[in-house]
Each structure stands twice: as structure tokens, then as C-alpha cells.
Amino acid sequence: MTLYLQPRVDGDLRLVLEDRDLPHRLADGLGSPLNLVLPGRVGHNVRRFRDIYHRHHLSGGVYFAHKANRSAALLRALAATDAGVDVASLGELQHALGAGFDPGRIMATGPKSREYLWLAARTGAVVNADSTTELSELAGIVAAHALPRVRVMARLSGFTSSGTNVMSRASRFGVPAAELGALWEVLGKHREQLDFLGVAYHLDTVGMPEKATALEGCLLAVEEAYRHGLSPRAVDIGGGFGVSYLADGRQWEAWTSELTAAVLGKRPPITWNGHGYGLRNEGGTVRGALSVYPAHRGVAGPDYLESLLTAESAVHRRPFGTLLLDGLHDLHVEPGRALLDQCGAVLMRVEEVRGDGRGETLVRLAGNSGDVALEAHGVLMDPLLLSRGEPGPEEPAGVHLTGNLCLEADLITRRKVFLPRLPRPGDLLAFANTAGYLMDFSVGNALMQPTARTVAVVRDGDRWRWCLDEQYWPVLGREETG
Amino acid sequence: MRFDHVTDVIGDTPLVRIDAAVHGLNNIDLYAKMELFNPFGSVKDRAAWNMVRHRLPGAADRGETVVELSSGNTAKALAVIAGMHGLPFRSVTNRMRIPEVKDLLLLLGAQIDELPGRSECLDPSDADDPLTRMYHTVSADGAGYLHTDQYFNDLNIEAHLRGTGPEIIADLDGRAPDYFIACVGTAGSSTGVARALRAHDPAVTVVGLVAEKSDFVPGIRNLDEVHEVGLFDPDVYDTIEAVSSDDAIDGLLTLVRRCGTLAGPTGGGAYQGAVRYLRRIDAGLTERRTAVFIVCDRVESYLSYLRERRPALFRQQARANTVRSLTAEDVAAARTVGVADARTWIDKEHPLIVDLRSPFAYRAQHIDRSINIVDEQFGEMLHGGLPFSTRQPVLLVCPVGEKSARYAALLARMGHPDARSLAGGVIAWRDAGAELVRD
Predict the structure, then answer these.
(1) How far A62 CA sits from the closest chain B CA (Å)?
(2) I need a surface site. Which of A179, A215, B79, B172 has the fewest CB within 10 A?
(3) Nearest CA in chain B to A224
(4) Domain assignments of chain B as residue spans, ordered by start
């Protein structure tokens, strides 16, 4: 059985990767590994989130979570839309300002230094605070430097549920929802410096009930804020909308079933050294949990937002979308991965194909697991094989992809990857749809291998134009002026 | 029939023949083992009682809590039994997927812990999942838990090896059926019954039914999940087949509508899977055979499950005076009033201001002197006719003026001469700087 996990690739990304010539020319000229980004796609992704807003008559911001990818081209393309940006460091804030985001569209989140707080306050970005201490410090900076009043949001955590006890992973960020008294006190005391916009949560989970519990908690906190004489007007529900990576859910089901069988020893391993991705065999029974990203998801991205908004609040017995609208709240979201769906790929050249003497085929690539962080993020999907010259006949081959680091552990993925035919040295493997978190998120150069250049590819009629990432600006060609 | 304890009522369920005109098998007598007649409503009453009974003495004194990883019938039975013996019950579950069962468990006094969902930004080095961690906590000695451990507890199998299986043989006049078809959940009932039947007659064919992988049938594990079940032994089954939620609902409908058997989807799946399997054999038979399947529990807890998958089953009568019956033209013709004009109108004619938003939002801020009737309740009121005089002008408000326009149109159609919708809603009102108050 050929256990493909074929990626879902569409739009311009598919066309670029199907071009027989362009990817090879780019990799020949700029080296392997090479990152491709498609800034033309992000506007479409923003619009799909906006459609959900319109359907629910909601207003508020779609803030791109910058940490998903540091590409300048993608950021500048987003600056040209009505999206905002969620920055999580001083560097990201500077990057966003330089990319053309006016501060009104910038949300500053994450662990914050004094410098970061100052620049956010000075420019007028929204400061999304993790603690009451941070708010006090910010108020101090604003007062000491005579800065204008800063718009702030407070991130909450540790929500309690009604009915059942919905457990959630503990977060190291946020004001505990049970201890809001101190928050109201700080906001009341520093009214001159802090303009309280509303409350936020960000949960690291794909679980809808946890998010519903958190949203419920935010609505209750807003109510409490009113009682303390504040007038919040926004709820920020963070990100985590997700992407469905695979084209065919049946492949995902078949692969996970076969993994279970392999862990139980009922079939030959389908991973390097029989790695179980969290599953283990205890006396013929599978224990543990599959610790990978759910690569095929029925509901992801904007559709996930839609199902959250149509889900009914257990407390108010009314859909969350309606409750947000009833309360006249702006809804802010901070998608990263979902906004970069179909926005990029990582190319790697095949260096060598050989047997390992134990019956397995090793395909060594000019690139490593830091250049495409599939394994670090548990995303399992096949690369596309871009043959150089005339492709050979189709004959599925199961191979292990090894990297260019002199380390036993440097595998691009521990999964045995099936390709439509055995690659040849000089061919390219394209890891498609990797712009969100997978591109150069974990890159390092301890072994002094080349780090990938990033190239922006843009459609120009029926041709492709490309430039280095930092050369891209959303002014294409010479616009007509008259 | 007189009993001292309700737990004595567990078991000894009837075996009822399914009419051949319903299942259409020519050479096979098909019997349903009616486990829905157990006192707490399901086959799990047997396992729950058998796993817990010998550990009850002194448990209350030791301050123990009964705990089980269950989101369904086992939890229900254990909650009842724990309550009868003065013990708290805690149900740990990945997800409560059946709202009626969740509410029933809360009603019975259970504590329900839902485990966290999967992480969106994965940390692959975090190898221990929440379930395993929970498992270690409740299994530790002296932790104060009476953990019944249904997926690994041999007493679960034993309940059926000594109870359900022998009962079937007795009711078939001392013969084992030729075919036994069961859904695989904890594998307790299928394994226990299969062992009892085979001990009597090794020729019995046992068919295990599992759910299709992306599907969800309550009480049945899918093809992968069965491997996480300690009691599951593939050698018990001559064959394992998949049933879908569609199959389960089709079977359920046959049982409830034509067989007088108010079965839930697990029983429905067992029936459908049984008939599908037996039909392939039936044509080649030259002598009579018997087959038995288990009706696990009752239908009433699954109404929302059914409604979600087959909304057409719950067709509702068209009601008078609903916003759904309005045409786009009706809504477009609704009388609206902008914020500035509305303020003048309010000062001059004192219309009744009806705020259609949730009480929660209304409490936070609203237009002065408005009354709050949530849109759904307002809709309910209108089914019966106009709730206010036609001489009383009405201003309807909602967040953006969309719902209020629909209700203004409906009021107009019902004969109200002056019902207006606030254009742009409370948001436009706020943005125009008009006053919002809290009481």
C-alpha cells in the first residue's frame, strides 16, 4: 500500500510549483534550500475571514500573527489590505511599522521589554497586556515620557466553565480570570494613561469547548468591567484557527491506522526506527496519544471562526456571534497559520539517493529539518517531486528524507515518505503550503550550512515575476495615473 | 417480582424475535437481546455493577470517589450506583458529545472533567498526553479513587460471561445461536458473550462492529480506537465490519418504528450491521439458523444526535407570524428611522422602545426607557398575535438594525401601523454619540 499524505495545494501556489522551469531556475540561481512566498494570496485569505465578519455583522480587526513568518513581502502585502498585525517583540513591531502598518492597526502582544512598551506607546499601537504589572509599568512609561493615552487590552486566562469542568492546559500568560479585582484597580488608577479597549484570550488548542469557555469568561469579564465604571468595547479571541494540510482525509485516516498497526507490530514500520509519534505498545494495547498536528481538518481557518460564532453559549443560550453583536463589541482575531494558507513553499535539491543496507532508501537533501520545521510542528505531509528534465515513469517509492547536517537525528521527517517515483539527484522536492510556522521558524546555522533565501513570486498576467523578499513592495509595475 | 435492591434488577433481560417481515431474512431467526430493559437503561449496568460491587464496602468511610473514563452509559450507571452508596462520582472524558447524557450525568450529581483538546502549536517533546497523566493519577494506590477502569477490567467481561451469554443460551432452549453480532465499545459485552457462547458451541460465528473512522456512533469505537482498548482481542471476532452513523440511524428507525423497540444508535448500528452481514449468508442456506444482536440502550438520550444528522425527521409545523416567512421585499419595505429622527420621535411621541438583544448586553448599556425582550422571545410572543395596541408606536432596536427591520416588517404585516426599526441599530446610536445608560 502506498501511504501518500498528499498536500492540499491550490491557486497560484499550485501553478508556480507545476511550472516545469521556474522552481529549477530559482533554486539554481539562489541555492538550496530556498523559500518561496506568494504575497498575492494573503489578500484572499484576509477576505475569507472578513466574509465571516460580514455574515455576523461584526466589526473589529483581523490581526496577522507576525510570528508565523518573518517574510517582509508577506507583511507588506498584508499592510496593503485592511488587516492588522499582531507583533510579539520589539523587532516585529519595528518590522510592522516599516512595512506600512499604521499604529492603529498594530496589536503588541507577547513578553514585553520596556523598550518594546515605549515604542508601542509612542507610536500608538494597542498594547495587549499579559499582567497587571505590565499595565502598571506601561502607565509609568506613559506618564514619565508624557506620551498620549495608550489603548490597552488585558489578556485573561484560567477560565472556569459551567456544567462540566472543561480542563485546559495551563498558560503562562494572562491575568487569572478569578482575580480580576486587581486588574480593574490598575485600569481605574491609570485612567489618564490607559484607554481600556477590552479583554483577550489566546488558547493553544484546537478544542472548541475550551475556546467557548474562554469566550464566555471574556463576556463575563466585560460585564464586570462595566460595573467598575470602565467601558470596554472589544473582545480579542486570539488565533488557533488552523489549516487543513492534506487534500484527502482518507489518506490521513489510512496513514494513522497503519501507524497504529505498525506500533502494534502488525505491519513493518512506516517511520524511522519505528517512531510512534506519541503512541506506544503496552502488552498489545496502544497507549499514549498521537502527538502530531491534525493534518486533515474538516473545519479550519475562517470556517473554524464561523463555527465558534455559531456555537451557543451554555450560560446565555445564545450563539456567541449574536452575544458579541448584542454587546456592541468589536471582535479581534489573530490568525497566523490560517492567513498564510497557500502562501509559500520550501524548495530543496536532492543531493543523493542510496540504499541504507537495511532495505530502506535514503534521499539526502540540500537542506535540513530547521529549514522546513515539519517535524518540530508535527505536520505530516508529502513534498511534491519536481523532476529535472523529463520525469521517469511513475513507480511509487517509499523513502526516508535526510538532511544536510552531520547529525544522526537530522531527518526532514521521521515518517517514511512515499513519492510517485524515485527521485534523482538534481530533482527538487517542494514542501508546499509551509509559509505558516514551517518555513524558517527553527532555522539555525550551528553547522554553517547555507540558510535559505526567500523569494517573492508574483503573478504578472500569464507570467511570473520574482524578486528577493526584501525587494518586494505592493506597487507592481507602473500604475496608470491618469 | 419483588426486589430488595434496584441493583438486583440488573440482567435477566428478554430475548425478542424480530419479525421476518421487517428484516427480510428467509432462513435466519434474528433475536434482539433487550439490554435497554436494565434499570439504569443500558447494557453497561451489568459491567458497572460487576466492577464496583465488591469494592463498595467501606469505600464511603475511606472517602473514595468512583472514577471512570466514560462519556456515556457506564458513567450513567456508575453515577447512580455511587449515589446509592454515598460516594461521589467523577467522569473523565475527552469530550461529552451527547448533550442529553451530559445533562443527565449532572442531574445525577456527577462531576464531569473534559480533558483539554489537542494543542494547536504542537510541542512534540511533550510525549505524555493528558489522558495518560489522568490515568496515572486515578490509578495510584491510596489516591482516594475507586477507578473502575472499564477498558482494562476483566470484571467487565465477566459480567457478560456469567450473565448475558448464559441468558441467551437458556432463552434459546439450551442452544447457542449460530451468529452473534455485537458493537465493540469497551469490548466487554462482545468478548464476554462470545466466550460464553463458544464454550457451549465452538462453531458460533462472532461478528464485531466498529465505527467508520471519521464517523461517530455513540458507544462504538472506531477501527483505530479499538486498539486502545485493553479488553479488545481481535481473535474473539471471526470478522470485524464497519458501520456508519447513517447505518446506525437507519437501524434505529427500523427498530423504533417497526419493532416496538426504542433502541438508541448503538442498537440501531448492531441491527443494521447484523442484517447486512446475515443477508449475504441467507441466500445460500438450506436449513434454519439463529442470530442474536444486542440492543444496548434507549433512544431518548440521542434526540439531538439524531436532529443534527437527520433534521428532516423532526419536521415542524409551519407557524403563523414568523420572520422566516417574510420575503426580501417585505423586509426592504419595513419602516426604518435614523438615529437623529428617532431621537426627535422619541421625545415627541414616546414610542415603546423594544431592545431585542440579550439581557446580558441590555444590562450593560441600552437606550434610556427601553424594555428588553430578546428576539427569540419576541418571536414567540408574535406567534400568538400583536402583543401591544395598534395605537402605541413601537421602535425596535437590535445591534445593527437587521433583525429589528425584520420584526418591524412582521409587525406591519400583522397590522401594526407604526412599528419602526432603528436604522444601524444600537451601534449607530452609540457611534452618533447618543446616550446609552445602565440602570
Answers:
(1) 19
(2) A179
(3) B364
(4) 9-37+154-314, 44-147, 323-431
